[in-house]
Amino acid sequence: METLKIFLAGRWREGRGELMQSRFPADGSLNAELHAANLDDVNDAVAAAERAWRAPEWRQQLPHQRAAILQRVSELIVEQLEPLAQLQTRDNGKPLAETRGLVASAAATARYFAAACEVLEGELPTQRSHDAMTLSQYQPLGVIAAITPWNSPIASEMQKVAPALAAGNAVILKPAEATPLMALKLAELFEQAGLPAGLLSVLPGKGSVIGEALARHPLVKKISFTGGTSTGRHLAHVAAEKLIPTSLELGGKSPTMVLADADLEQAARGICYGIFSSAGQACIAGSRLFVHRSLYQPLLARLCELASGLRVGNPLQPGVHLGPLINARHRQSVADYVALAQQEGGRVLIGGEIPADPQLANGSYYLPTIIEGLNNEARVCQEEIFGPVLVAMPFDDEAQLIEMANDSVYGLAAGIWSRDFPRAMALASQLETGTVWINTYKTFSISTPFGGFKHSGLGREKGLHGIKAYMQQKSVYLALNHQINRWSD
Ligand code: ADP
C-alpha cells in the first residue's frame, strides 16, 4: 500500500495532520493513504510561497520563461495521458472516456496559459496631457489559495494553477477531501517541469480546517474556489474581511429547453449527455428540462429509450457511460431527492433506483432517472441534486419558458435546442446564465470565459482575461518635463 506524501514548499514530506484515505468509488478499494496537512503545514507553505513569488529568480523571469514551464507541464500531461486518466478515474469514479477528456483539457489549459502569458500586454491609455505619459501594467497578486472540488480535479485544478503561475504568483492548492491524488500528481509534474520550489504547494485536508486556515491567512491575496454555493458564500465573507478578491465557481440548476422546431434526435442525445455524463455530478448538468408541448411526448419517450440504453458500471471498463457516485452519503442524498420528488407529486419515468446488478453492490451507483409531473417551484427543480436526475416539464409559449428558466437562484448554464438560430439567439440573450449552449451541451473551449450569474458564482475563468484575474493593475505616470508640481490656480 502506497503512503503518499504531501508537497510542501518544493519538498515531499509527511503531512502533520490526520490519516486520510483515497478510495476507488466503484468498489471502495483503497487507492492510497496519506497524512493530511495540518495548520503548521499551512503556515509553512504560505510563508514559503510568499518568499518564492517575491524572489528575484521568479519575479525577474520573463514571460517566455514562465511559459516554458507551463508548456513542459502540458507536454508531460500529454505523454502520460492514459495513466493520468486512470488515476483520475480511481480517484473519483468517472468513466475513463470522460477522464481522458479531462486530462487532455488540463494539458490544453497549461498550453493556453503559456501562450497567454507570452502575449499578455500592458496598456497605454489614451494620453490626456503633454506633461505626463501614463502606462498601465499588470502585476501578480502574491500567494493564491486554490480550493477545488472532487468532480473534475485535473481540469479544475489546472484552470486555477496555470493562470495563477503564468501571472507570476505562487499557489497553494487545497484539493477536495475525497480526491487528493490528482493534485499531488500535478505537483509532481510541475516539479519535473522545473517550477522553482515554494511556488506550488499541495495541501490535502479538511475544507473546514485546512481550506479555512488558508483562506484566512493574512498573506493569501486571492481565493480561487470551485465548489458548493454555501461554501463559496462563506469564503466571500472571509475574503471581504481581508479585502481580497475571489473567484467563485459555484452550483447550478441549469435549464435545457427544446423549442417546437428542434431536431428531436439531436436534442434527446444532447440532453441525455448533458444530465447523465459524470452521473450528473457536474455543476453545469442540464437538470431541468423544458419541452414545447408539441414535442413533449415523443421527446420524453426517446429520452427514456436512450437512458435505458446507458451502461452503468465499473468506470475503468470500456463502453461505460455512468460510473458510481462519489460515495454512499452522496448517493443517499440523491435518493432522498428522488423520494422528495415523489412526495411532491412527481412520477419517476425511468430509474429512481440503485442498480440490481450484484457486481455493482460495492459502489455508490444510481440509475439514470427521469421525473415528470412537477412544476418549476418543486424543490427538486430549485435545489442542486448533483446526480443523474432530470426533471422534465412541458411549456406552451416562450414568455412562460423564459420566466421558468430564469426562476432559479442559480445562473450557471442553459441549453437551447432549435433549428431557428435567430430565435435561439434571441432566447439566449434573455437567459440569466453565464453560458448558453445552442444545439450542443457541455461543450468547452479554453479561450471562452466560464462562470456564473446570480448564486452560481463571481468572476470568470478561462479566456485571455483568465490570467488577468490573477493580477492587479498598476498605473504609472511619467513626467515628460522638469516642471515642479504647481498648486492649481
Ligand atoms: P462540494 O459539495 O463540491 O464538496 P464544497 O464546497 O463542500 O463542495 O467543497 C469544495 C472544496 O471546498 C473542497 O476542497 C472542500 O474541502 C473545501 N471547503 C469546504 N469547506 C471549506 C471552508 N470552510 N473553507 C475553505 N474550504 C472549504
Automatic annotation (TrEMBL):
The active site is at residue 249. GO terms for molecular function: oxidoreductase activity, acting on the aldehyde or oxo group of donors, NAD or NADP as acceptor. SUPFAM superfamilies: ALDH-like. Its EC number is 1.2.1.-. It holds the Pfam family Aldedh. InterPro entries: Ald_DH/histidinol_DH (IPR016161), Ald_DH_C (IPR016163), Ald_DH_CS_CYS (IPR016160), Ald_DH_CS_GLU (IPR029510), Ald_DH_N (IPR016162), Aldehyde_DH_dom (IPR015590). Keywords: Oxidoreductase. Belongs to the aldehyde dehydrogenase family. This is Aldehyde dehydrogenase (NAD) family protein. The gene is hpaE2.
